[in-house]
Amino acid sequence: MRKIIVQKFGGTSVADTNKIKNVAKTVIREKQNGNDVVVVVSAMGHTTDYLVKMAKDLSPDPSGREMDMLLSTGEGVSIALLAMAIQAQGYDAVSFNAMQIGILTENIHTKARILKIKTDKLKENLKAGKIIVIAGFQGVTDDGEITTLGRGGSDTSAVAIAAALNAERCDIYTDVEGVYTTDPRVVPNASKLDEISYEEMLELAHAGANVLHPRSVETAKLNNVPLRVRSSFKQDNLGTLILGVDKMEINRPVAGVAADLSQARIVVCDVPDKPGVAAKIFSALAKENISVDMIIQSYARKVSNTNDIAFTIDSADLDKTVKTLDTLKHDIDAHGDIQIDDKIAKVSIVGAGMIDRPGVASSMFETLAQQNINIRMISTSEIKISCLVDKSDAHRAVKALHKVFGLESTEIADVKGDLPDV
Amino acid sequence: MRKIIVQKFGGTSVADTNKIKNVAKTVIREKQNGNDVVVVVSAMGHTTDYLVKMAKDLSPDPSGREMDMLLSTGEGVSIALLAMAIQAQGYDAVSFNAMQIGILTENIHTKARILKIKTDKLKENLKAGKIIVIAGFQGVTDDGEITTLGRGGSDTSAVAIAAALNAERCDIYTDVEGVYTTDPRVVPNASKLDEISYEEMLELAHAGANVLHPRSVETAKLNNVPLRVRSSFKQDNLGTLILGVDKMEINRPVAGVAADLSQARIVVCDVPDKPGVAAKIFSALAKENISVDMIIQSYARKVSNTNDIAFTIDSADLDKTVKTLDTLKHDIDAHGDIQIDDKIAKVSIVGAGMIDRPGVASSMFETLAQQNINIRMISTSEIKISCLVDKSDAHRAVKALHKVFGLESTEIADVKGDLPDV
């Protein structure tokens, strides 16, 4: 039984016909390794921007259904061109859009979730020795409506197809060399990780590392599909393998350090210490689609019988949050201010290995103390410890933690892009 | 029961977002007339050229299947954008590609024929009051392969959809104002015809008038769908209605005059006068996909018992024809030369009214004689008389015939483009 490898190439990797020729070579190399190959591609480079611009020319608020019809054409172009490029090099290839395969999704436009992938057409074509090229990012509903999957869509398509085909592995080709112990723009000698668990990858992604959308990692975890993040341009580099923690060979307390500079802290002061108050606040925010991250409720003050509820949100939701809380204030009988602070950052250490190792948290707190960095809030999960600090301290915190937990490489990472703002 | 009007807009009419807004207005105007409206559109302006160029970058001979996948994305873009533009003006619209509707074709890539069109989705959406926007030029096979219809494809899609829906009429919007009595670049006071029969339109098209591809006219004739050719830019002008001869109100011997400058004449000299020789020649040419137009076989010469076979072909097929005949010469025992003349033109008069009117042919021959134009070959059908003349005489012949048969307008037609070469 031949192994199936699913490969995914993003828009940058197929931005022009020369790049498509290179992708064809990478695909064929995997085929020459004796594997069956299924390739998932996004729309070419700036196609989506161009299509969105035309839509906005025609309508200030184009319908989701027609946006999906419009955007799904982008992958139609790239799959056909890639199949041609593979054929031109003497290999049999066939392209399919989501409708042809039956990548069934919910009937929700612009951000549908995949429900089921039909595999009969895929298996039949693999059996015939063909390389299959599939349109990422798109799906179809039971009654033939075209949908798209929203952010991280093509990665998710690739992982879901790998799961449906019980593939050996899903390789996500990208413009970085893999997953790093921290942002190499902040710490130039950050190490590339050879392996990382799904859980660690999820915590790192949520903590501000942007290599993969959490959604695709969650899908991989759920279906136990090994994922490899690797460079489109440096083929020899095997990148980072993301897999179940039970299959990992590496044993280290901390896998990575991340900073999220886009959070804001809200404190609702002097709310009555009685049941249901927190529920009212957070369900009102949820109704407005505002994601809340760290939450701390102070001990109740004895005299006033009130307490403070503090939490963090994405800065982009700040206005909406304040508006929601203002409306709510009377209802929850809150007497104090609503305090806002967007000069904060969340610094996190992530590692599956910390579960059995006491002392990781105290090492973190000590390190920050030595750096004279004040901790404003703390939250922990099984494999992550996050500290809220002043935004201006964030990079210094990351550097110190990265060093303390022994994550440095002897090499300087080759990365582009500016340092994130503090 | 509301009437259904099918409208078709070509690539020039939807070349940019401003033009798409104009098309939306035209569509809405028809809806405001109280009709149900189904719109068929082609890919935007130069999209197809751009896609073909990328394909050629990747492969000297891209597979038909992948070309169809690639090109079919073009209409996906234009249908979504047109639906958005209609919605932005406050009308309910929904776009569908061929796969969603079920425009079923043969399993032949790049030039499939439509076999059947499913109408349930169309009827359901019309019933819901929606304007339906459909991708022209494309189809789908029984097993979900995407096909395209080749030349004249979008016109044919529109006519076939009109037939399937039993539509009142199919309006083909184009950059000319209608069908003219002759090429207005040759005869500036050519008249726009208000009505013309399918048969006349077909003969005119085959005789070199390029308003509609014969394929779409044939489909309209077969299904008795009234077709209107009209201008995208001059909405008040009703253009030309193409319909069954039995429904026509107008009574005139000649509807139009056309010249085909792209023919070449071949004479195979001294072939034996025995049964089966002509069959051998023309079946050999048919096997090579060479269309033969006029055919004349001379009377057999008494002494040698041979005759000459003359016929015309498209100049583009000249080399292929000569090669085929050279191979055949020995087999048919032909002793003479193969003469070639590509300095000829076919001038035709077309009119359903000539059936009951003797003297039309003699008027034509007399007119050409008065002009001192030599007739090299003659062929006739029920509603057409064609004369082969020297290419340099073609425009003069058209002008004289146009005048003799009373086809002149008092107005000078507003047309663009160069005069066809003689």
Describe this structure as you would to a colleague.
Chain A has 422 residues and is α/β, with parallel strands linked by helices. Chain A has a domain at 4-251: Carbamate kinase, CATH 3.40.1160.10. Chain A has 12 helices and 20 strands. Chain A has helices at 17-32, 47-58, 64-88, 98-101, 120-127, 153-164, 198-206, 214-223, 277-287, 318-332, 360-370, 394-404; strands at 4-9, 36-41, 93-96, 103-105, 114-117, 131-135, 138-140, 146-148, 169-174, 195-197, 227-231, 240-243, 256-260, 263-272, 292-297, 306-314, 338-341, 344-350, 377-381, 384-390. An 8-stranded mixed β-sheet of chain A has the order 3-6-2-1-9-11-12-10, sandwiched between helices. In chain A, strands 13-18-20-19 form a 4-stranded antiparallel β-sheet, sandwiched between helices. In chain A, α1 (17-32) links the parallel β1 and β2 (36-41). The longest helix of chain A is centred in the first third of the chain and has 25 residues, at 64-88. The radius of gyration of chain A is 24 Å and the shape is globular. The mean pLDDT of chain A is 90. At the A-B interface, α1, α2 and α3 of A face α1, α2 and α3 of B.
Task: Please give the radius of gyration of chain A in angstroms.
Answer: 24 Å
For CATH, the homologous superfamily of the domain at 4-251 in chain A is named as Acetylglutamate kinase-like
Helix content of chain A: 25-40%
Largest sheet of chain A: 8 strands, mixed
Alpha-carbon distance between the termini of chain A? 53 Å
Order of strands in the sheet with most strands of chain A: 3-6-2-1-9-11-12-10
Low-confidence stretches of chain A: none
- Describe the oligomeric state of these chains in a short phrase: homodimer
Helix/strand/pairing class of chain A, anyone? Answer: alpha/beta
Q: Count the helices of chain A. How many? A: 12
> What portion of residues of chain A belong to β-strands?
15-25%
In total, how many beta strands of chain A? 20
CATH topology of the domain at 4-251 in chain A: Carbamate kinase
- What CATH architecture label of the domain at 4-251 in chain A applies? 3-Layer(aba) Sandwich
Q: Overall mean pLDDT score of chain A? A: 90
